[in-house]
């Protein structure tokens, strides 16, 4: 007698049957044949494995309608673009996992132009000769930061790597123990140092480092003093770090360059929005720092990039490093970065047009109004399925910037009447436009600081669709 498992396995259709059925059904006309075949193989493999693993009761025989429905759903799901927009209801403005900074409309226009047309990327229109891609933003960066020279690479990790490799390979770099950071995505100062070929010399203690600690670590091998901004953590209590100006003076006395990895690197003082005072790039440059590195897509609110500004002699050295070619930015980054930096020429413009900045600067009242609007609409239309509430919450800047700093904000909390909260969270996460919120107990919080007015319709429809499944 044939086993039930074998019977079930035999009832699975073959690839040919599946293709014919899919083509006949005409529901997947937009999916190329090779993709259909690929999906069919994956689907059949999954079914076979499920039967063998006992996940599908062997008594389940596959009739045509059952497997065709499943297969169509499988193909639809599989064929969706993998990279997709999401609605960020986490309240974390520079959310590294959700794409960090959103770009200003102006920057998007520049991206389109750069993509659809030839450009003077490396062509000097004055001389008619080959030009440098870096010329387009160097002057702007110097004008905005007060630095002598600038260079842009792929990201800030690359900026730190190339600066260390250029200035301190096979030599020693002194860093305070309180600044040996690890940030998300496995960027760790000791590891990047190791990769650059520079030797890390740790000084001081976790909470306190004095100038005399640097003094005692100084040797003929010392090539650089590195200061790293405590981006994503804070040491509080009995603490001390050597301020920029003192370290710069000390470096000068010993003819050793001083570099600061600022991480976020902000050009506008955000303390006026209730956040802690962090040194701006201009202030750090003015302290006399020889090299300053920061990200393009954290607080700056531009595209992913690593910006290096500082003294011309060092920047020139870094520019000549062959690594620079490997770490160079593309025309899209350049187009985008230039348009974002131009906005900074007028602080009011920057605050209005750069999404990262206006989300930080948005007054609590504005966010509350948006939340209240959505709350009423949701209660009216989806109230049968959920209990909604308007709640005061805290947003975060994110991106490893300003840890522990909170911005008062407003969220709509969603408490499903029947669905489990984990199920609601998963359904929203898998929606056509996924919605990512913050689960707190048995409710999902949607912080309205990081949701735009233009997204509210979509958010509403998505939430509603979850309950009509
Ligand atoms: C974020 C950060 C980096 C890495 O910058 P990316 O642009 O993500 O490569 C390096 N150092 C510090 C201190 C940071 O905060």
Structure description:
The protein is α/β, with parallel strands linked by helices and 469 residues long. The protein folds into 3 domains: 4-79, no CATH class; 87-96 and 360-466, Aspartate Aminotransferase, domain 1 (Alpha-Beta Complex); 105-349, Aspartate Aminotransferase, domain 2. Helices cover 43% and strands 18% of the residues. It has helices at residues 4-10, 15-25, 33-52, 64-78, 105-116, 135-145, 156-168, 189-196, 211-217, 244-253, 281-286, 312-320, 323-326, 331-343, 347-353, 355-361, 364-382, 421-429, 456-467; strands spanning 87-88, 92-94, 149-153, 172-176, 182-183, 187-188, 199-203, 222-228, 258-263, 291-295, 306-310, 386-398, 401-416, 435-436, 438-440, 443-447. The strands form 4 sheets. It has a 7-stranded mixed sheet with strand order 3-11-10-9-8-4-7, sandwiched between helices. The chain has a 5-stranded mixed sheet with strand order 2-12-13-16-15. Strand 8 (222-228), helix 10 and strand 9 (258-263) form a beta-alpha-beta unit. The protein starts with a helix and ends with a helix. The mean pLDDT is 94. Pyridoxal-5'-phosphate is lined by residues 155-157, 160, 181, 183, 187, 228-229, 231, 261, 263-264, 295, 306, 400.
């Amino acid at each position: 007698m044939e086993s039930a498992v074998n019977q079930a396995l035999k009832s699975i259709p073959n690839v040919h049957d599946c293709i014919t059925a899919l083509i006949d059904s005409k529901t997947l006309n937009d999916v190329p044949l090779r993709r259909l075949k690929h999906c069919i193989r994956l689907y059949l493999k999954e079914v076979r494995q499920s039967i063998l693993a006992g996940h599908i009761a062997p008594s389940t025989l596959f009739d045509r309608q059952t497997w065709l429905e499943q297969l169509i759903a499988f193909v639809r799901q599989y064929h969706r673009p993998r990279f997709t927009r999401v609605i960020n209801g986490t309240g974390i403005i520079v959310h590294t996992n959700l794409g960090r900074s959103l770009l200003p409309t102006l920057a998007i226009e520049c991206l389109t132009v750069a993509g659809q047309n030839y450009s003077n990327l490396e062509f000097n229109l004055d001389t008619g000769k080959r030009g440098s891609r870096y010329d387009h933003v160097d002057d702007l960066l110097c004008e905005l930061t007060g630095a002598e020279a600038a260079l842009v690479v792929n990201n800030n990790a690359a900026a730190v790597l190339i600066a260390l490799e250029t200035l301190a390979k096979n030599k020693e770099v002194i860093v305070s123990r309180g600044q040996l950071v690890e940030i998300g995505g496995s960027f760790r100062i000791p590891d990047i140092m190791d990769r650059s070929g520079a030797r890390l010399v740790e000084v001081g203690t976790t909470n306190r480092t004095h100038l005399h600690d640097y003094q005692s670590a100084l040797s003929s091998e010392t090539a650089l003093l590195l200061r790293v901004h405590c981006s994503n953590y804070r040491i509080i209590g009995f603490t001390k770090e050597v301020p920029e100006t003192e370290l710069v003076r000390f470096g000068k006395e010993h003819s050793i360059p001083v570099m600061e990895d600022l991480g976020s690197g902000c050009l506008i003082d955000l303390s006026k929005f209730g956040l802690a005072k962090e040194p701006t790039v201009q202030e750090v440059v003015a302290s006399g720092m020889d090299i300053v590195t920061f990200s393009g897509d954290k607080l700056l609110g531009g595209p992913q990039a690593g910006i290096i500004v500082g003294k011309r002699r060092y920047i020139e050295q870094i520019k000549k490093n062959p690594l620079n070619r490997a770490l160079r930015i593309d025309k899209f980054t350049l187009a985008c970065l230039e348009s974002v930096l131009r906005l900074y020429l007028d602080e009011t413009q920057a605050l209005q047009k750069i999404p990262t900045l206006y989300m930080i600067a948005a007054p609590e009242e504005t966010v509350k109004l948006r939340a209240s609007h959505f709350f009423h609409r949701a209660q009216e239309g989806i109230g049968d399925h959920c209990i909604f509430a308007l709640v005061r919450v805290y947003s975060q800047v994110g991106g490893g910037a300003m840890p522990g700093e909170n911005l008062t904000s407003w969220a709509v909390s969603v408490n499903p009447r029947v669905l489990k909260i984990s199920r609601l969270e998963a359904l929203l996460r898998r929606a056509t436009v996924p919605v990512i919120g913050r689960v707190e107990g048995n409710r999902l919080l949607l912080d309205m600081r990081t949701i735009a007015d233009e997204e509210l319709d979509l958010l509403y429809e998505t939430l509603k669709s979850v309950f009509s499944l």
